[in-house]
């Protein structure tokens, strides 16, 4: 998958943003925005925006999870919330793999280096294991579900 376009109305087909508060937030924050535009939203509320990825149709998910990946990898150590960002990133991938593997498998090659980096640098993200659990263990589950042993 090379350069992807911003998901348009047809990519959100069969998506009802009014079906729940989660889908409404997801559509509100993401629809029609580029990944570079989403950076500001991630900085304001990474937990809400990151978790919103779980409620998207396939094309928007595949586009925006790559933007979230870039945000998590390039956010800098001075950013408040970096521990939440790293944890949410791994959780979203794990959750979507568990429930909708066809969303993740086609782009997994574009995600695996970032998954490894985040898992191996939990301390860099200031993500205390007592609070966030083990990123290494989460990575193991992700790779098992993706068929990457």
Descriptive report:
Helix 1 (21-30) packs across helix 3 and helix 2 (35-44) packs across helix 4. The protein is mainly alpha-helical and 149 residues long. It is 63% helix and 0% strand.
Number of domains: 1
β-strand percent reads: under 5%
Class computed from helices, strands and strand pairing? mainly alpha
Mean pLDDT: 88
Q: Rg from C-alpha positions?
A: 15 Å
Fraction in helix: 55-70%
**Main β-sheet description:** none
The N- to C-terminal Cα distance equals 23 Å
Helix segment tally: 9
Order of helices and strands: HHHHHHHHH
The beta-strand count equals 0
- Unreliable sequence segments: none
Shape: globular
Features of this protein?
single chain; 149 residues; mainly alpha
